[in-house]
Amino acid sequence: MSYFKVLGFSKEPFSTSPDPDFFYLSREHEAALANILIELRLKRGLSVILGDVGTGKTTLSRKLIKELKDRDDFVFHIILDPSFESEELFLSSLAKNFEINISNDAGASIVILREGLERFLFQKGVTENKTVTLIIDEAQKLNVASLEVLRVLLNYETNEFKLLQLVLLGQLELHSKITEIANFFDRISFKFTLNPLDFDETREMIEFRLKQAGYAANMHLFLDEAIKEIHQYSRGYPRRITMLCHRALKTLVLKNKFVVDADLIRELIDEDIKSGWHRKDLLLQKNSC
Fold first, then answer.
1. Rounded distance, CA 162 to CA 156, Å?
2. What is the spatial order of strands in the sheet that 46-51 belongs to?
3. Are strands 46-51 and 74-79 parallel, antiparallel or unpaired?
4. Residues 6 or more apart in contact with residue 20 via CB below 8 angstroms
5. Separation CA 45–CA 31 (nearest Å)
6. What is the overall mean pLDDT for the chain?
7. In 3-state terms, what secondary structure has residue 252?
8. Which of 50, 56, 246, 252 is the most exposed place for a label (fewest CB within 10 A)?
9. Distance between CA atoms of 226 and 194, rounded to whole angstroms?
10. Which domains are seen in the chain, by residue range?
11. What CA–CA distance (Å, rounded) separates 65 from 59?
12. HEC assignment per residue over 38-86
């Protein structure tokens, strides 16, 4: 039997898979999502979400997709790894994933691919009144050629709106990359940087995921003293919080305990430090507090 069933859960509460049903919307995540949806509705073109590793960008993208699936006036595609070696490969990928019928696409030139995408965007955006949306995760991997492709696609517009809505989610190095391309940077309609969670949000996230997993008991599984240790060590990064909470619940079962307290969390942290499996930046943060 899985540990989470022993504790009364119907699902694993701290899976690291980007399940939108387990995505805790912090104030920043909620603001980012709401603003992106507004930008898409207004068809303003380009939105950029930045965040350090583990701040919830990928899960935010899945939450956005879930929202768009419920709306029949959107045509969208997500790219999970935009590491395209050439402009032609990027354009071909877009044509394929948007199911654009381009004659002789095996040998189609860049001009033909661009023209095919332009016709598609006009057909969907103007004739069918659809909102064509491209979401790119790990956008810091985009090279200069791919950013140029996106810049050109953002030029396709009517007198009233952009024909392509583009959402980029990337690590912080994306900022320096796009600021060097002025005619791309100037097209950003909405820009936002995700920050780690504060203590209250860390507690809310843990309680939210427990509830989503089916925990209905009145007793708190995680004491506030434990959450304080989790927040301090994780620095409020959702992915780190999730990983540490997962280990805490496993340990709870293995040691036949009833609640996660500060001692249990400190024990897990000490195990990482002694075994060399800790991140040095987290250790420095812990020691400075």
1. 6
2. 74-79, 131-136, 164-170, 46-51, 188-194
3. unpaired
4. 59, 62, 63, 65, 66
5. 18
6. 91
7. helix
8. 246
9. 25
10. 27-194 (3.40.50.300), 197-288 (1.10.8.60)
11. 10
12. HHHHHCCCEEEEEECCCCCHHHHHHHHHHHHHCCCCEEEEEECCCCCCC
Residue 284 has pLDDT above 70, yes or no: no
What is the rounded CA–CA span in Å between residue 166 and residue 48? 8
Give the model confidence (pLDDT) of 232-273 as tens digits: 999 999 999 999 999 999 999 899 898 999 999 999 999 988
Pair of tokens at residue 95: 């044509």
If we measure between CA atoms, which residue out of 169, 167, 141 comes closest to residue 154? 167
Q: pLDDT confidence of 101, banded at 50, 70, 90?
A: confident
Query: Hey, is 156 helix, strand or coil?
Result: coil
Which stretch of 55-69, 155-169, 174-188, 272-286 has the lowest confidence by average pLDDT?
A: 272-286
Count Cα neighbours of 151 within 13 Å in the Cβ-side half-sphere.
15
Return the ∠ at Cα 184 (arms to 181 and 190), rounded to 5°. Answer: 125
Q: What is the arithmetic mean of pLDDT over 40-67?
A: 95
Length of the chain: 289
